[in-house]
């Protein structure tokens, strides 16, 4: 069923007011004209350079057996071609935006659109609405030049909406195939994170195995920055989101250093990995930044973390400073070994005793859950503030994950720090004042207008996806590399998704999945932060990065993230 999206009816009454309210802001109007930069190879006709056959990063035998038709394909790279290319037969493409929003999604769409139109003006682009569910339930719209124009260089996924429905069963694949055939679609592009790209690989294999003649291409998206490897240097959206958060952290630090009376506990999005927190720490130089991967590696307890923060607070108090900033990665709680164990038990209890828990009042719910936990986890559960215990006991998301964005880790830590400081004061080890403010920066960064870096990167990823489709490839992820160089020198091509896979236990079963990239404790970004940590804790060396700049000198407007620069052995 073709739909206009978003559905809305303009009323004649008050039309002038409505039209006025519909006007774009000055920045939006000027930004719409921005022409994203493309790698040299994509600026005209392309030819394909085919590399060697590939292997998966691990578990080759198992992955090969699960992907007999799409395993071992070569890495491909595009090069400029002197022959002008025009595709005689126009073709149609479908797209799905999957999972959490990330700045630049609209430019992926416009890149695909411009890419296919450059091959043949008659090619058409269809968008499935609200994520994979639009594909399964046949809800779509055609994306025309006029419609896309409204969204170029803007943030958000509202062009067609996004969703978290998992695309993983043959029934869903067959339901989707029907609409693909109806619309004469030759290729489906799935713009998503590691799970969605894993599903793209499964879908590509399924369609190939069943002779469906449909190509599937993935595009690496997530502000969390955890979909990256040797071939995918960063996922899109990370750059913009981190710059938005760094701006506001900087503003808070100015406030903090002006009033000198609060500790600001700032939780930052990033469901699992701490890349966002780490990047913001490099940008803003807070007094403390917790890194979940370090907590797990050192097998730290909640108590250890609280002690670490209290040490900083007490030492700063000796210098007369009763203020500071603490960055907390969103996923922290799941990386504390004892909490991880508790969460795993809670996952089981919530499923097994769902009926018993249904409709219970808060206190009864806590009591019943507690009665089903092992003594060790029960004790930890009981020691948590009531609101945190309840937040940990909320329903899981559709992938079975704890909804970490709903857990107020920042308040949990500050409450525990306050309690410990009181004890320290009684023992004469602390004589400062402690007052806390709490913040969570997450959703406000996911739909920001993309930075020049993300606007260029996403447009190139989309345009590149169009070239992969035209090259007849399936089961590939769009890859644009060499990102710390100028966009014209970026390398465009495709990476077989199976190459990034290994087998992991998920919900009790071994599954082929793309390896999630956590913060590497031997990597330059982490080591750089670790080398400054003590100095940042016991001094006040805040940085104030300011807002994203879209117009001006390239060193300000086009600068990639510090994480990317450091990972590429560049100086920051
Ligand atoms: P993706 O992995 O789909 O890109 O989403 C990541 C994320 O932004 C996390 O940082 C956050 O924990 C989660 O989405 C929030 O999910 P929701 O939008 O469903 O509240």
Report on the structure:
This protein is an alpha/beta fold and 572 residues long. It has 24 helices and 15 strands. The chain has a 9-stranded mixed beta sheet, with helices on both faces. A hairpin with a 2-residue loop joins strand 14 (501-506) and strand 15 (509-514). Helix 14 (337-352) packs across helix 17. The longest helix is centred in the middle third of the chain and has 22 residues, at 238-259. The model has no long low-confidence stretch (mean pLDDT 94). 1,6-di-O-phosphono-beta-D-fructofuranose (FBP) binds at residues 99-100, 102, 164, 193, 222-224, 269-271, 330, 404-405, 446. The site of 1,6-di-O-phosphono-beta-D-fructofuranose has 15 residues, from loops.
How do the strands and helices of this protein lay out in sequence?
Blueprint: H1 15-22, H2 26-31, E1 46-50, H3 60-66, E2 76-80, E3 92-97, H4 105-119, E4 124-128, H5 132-136, E5 140-142, H6 145-149, H7 170-182, E6 185-192, H8 194-209, E7 215-220, H9 238-259, E8 263-268, H10 275-284, E9 288-289, H11 292-297, H12 302-318, E10 324-329, H13 332-335, H14 337-352, H15 354-357, H16 362-371, H17 375-383, H18 386-392, H19 409-426, E11 436-441, H20 443-446, H21 452-470, E12 476-481, E13 491-496, E14 501-506, E15 509-514, H22 524-537, H23 554-557, H24 562-567
Parallel strand pairs: 3-4, 3-6, 6-7, 7-12, 8-10, 8-11, 9-10
Antiparallel strand pairs: 1-2, 2-13, 4-5, 12-13, 14-15
Helix pairs in contact: 4-21, 9-10, 10-22, 12-19, 14-17
The protein binds 1,6-di-O-phosphono-beta-D-fructofuranose.
1,6-di-O-phosphono-beta-D-fructofuranose binds next to loops.
């Amino acid at each position: 069923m073709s739909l206009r999206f978003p559905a809305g009816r303009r009323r004649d009454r008050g039309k002038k007011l409505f039209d006025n309210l519909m006007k774009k802001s000055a920045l939006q109007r000027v930004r719409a004209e921005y022409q994203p930069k493309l790698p040299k190879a994509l600026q005209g006709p392309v030819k394909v350079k085919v590399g060697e056959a590939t292997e998966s990063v691990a578990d080759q035998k198992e992955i090969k057996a699960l992907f007999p038709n799409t395993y071992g394909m070569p890495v491909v790279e595009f090069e400029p071609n002197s022959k002008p290319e025009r595709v005689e037969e126009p073709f149609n493409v479908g797209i799905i935006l999957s999972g959490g929003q990330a700045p630049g999604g609209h430019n992926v769409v416009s890149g695909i659109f411009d890419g296919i139109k450059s091959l043949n003006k008659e090619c058409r682009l269809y968008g499935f609405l609200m994520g994979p569910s639009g594909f399964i339930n046949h809800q779509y719209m055609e994306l025309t030049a006029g419609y896309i124009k409204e969204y170029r260089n803007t943030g958000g996924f509202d062009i067609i909406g996004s969703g978290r429905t998992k695309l993983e069963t043959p029934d869903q694949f067959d339901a989707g195939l029907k609409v693909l055939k109806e619309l004469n679609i030759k290729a489906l592009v799935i713009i998503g994170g590691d799970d969605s790209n894993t599903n793209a690989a499964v879908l590509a294999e399924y369609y190939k195995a069943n002779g469906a003649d449909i190509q599937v291409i993935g595009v690496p998206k997530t502000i969390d920055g955890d979909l990256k490897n040797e071939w995918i240097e960063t996922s899109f959206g990370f750059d913009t989101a981190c710059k938005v958060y760094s701006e506001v952290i900087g503003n808070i630090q100015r406030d903090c250093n002006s009033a000198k009376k609060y500790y600001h506990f700032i939780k930052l999005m990033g469901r699992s990995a701490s890349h966002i927190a780490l990047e913001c720490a490099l940008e803003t130089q807070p007094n403390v930044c917790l890194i979940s991967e370090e907590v797990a590696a050192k097998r730290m307890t909640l108590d250890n973390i609280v002690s670490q923060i209290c040490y900083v607070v007490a030492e700063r108090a000796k210098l007369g400073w009763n203020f500071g900033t603490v960055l907390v990665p969103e996923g922290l709680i799941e990386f504390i070994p004892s909490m991880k164990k508790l969460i795993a038990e809670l996952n089981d209890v919530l499923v097994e005793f769902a009926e018993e828990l249904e409709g219970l009042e808060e206190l009864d719910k806590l009591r019943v859950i507690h009665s089903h936990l092992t003594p060790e986890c029960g004790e930890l559960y009981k020691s948590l503030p009531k609101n945190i215990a309840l937040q940990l006991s909320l329903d899981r998301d559709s992938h079975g994950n704890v909804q970490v964005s709903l857990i107020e880790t920042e308040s949990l830590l500050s409450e525990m720090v306050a309690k410990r400081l009181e004890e320290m004061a009684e023992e004469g080890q602390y004589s400062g004042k402690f007052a806390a403010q709490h913040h969570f920066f997450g959703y406000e960064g996911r739909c920001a207008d993309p930075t020049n870096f993300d606007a260029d990167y996403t447009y190139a990823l989309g345009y590149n996806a169009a070239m992969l489709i035209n090259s007849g490839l399936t089961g590939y992820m769009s890859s644009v590399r060499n990102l710390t160089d100028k966009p014209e020198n970026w390398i465009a091509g495709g990476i077989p998704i199976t190459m990034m896979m290994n087998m992991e236990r998920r919900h009790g079963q071994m599954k082929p999945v793309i390896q999630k990239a956590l913060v590497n404790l031997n990597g330059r970004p982490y080591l750089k932060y670790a080398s400054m940590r003590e100095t940042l804790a016991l001094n006040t060396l805040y940085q104030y990065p300011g807002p994203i700049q879209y117009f001006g000198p390239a060193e300000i407007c086009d600068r990639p993230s510090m994480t990317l620069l450091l990972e590429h052995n560049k100086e920051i």
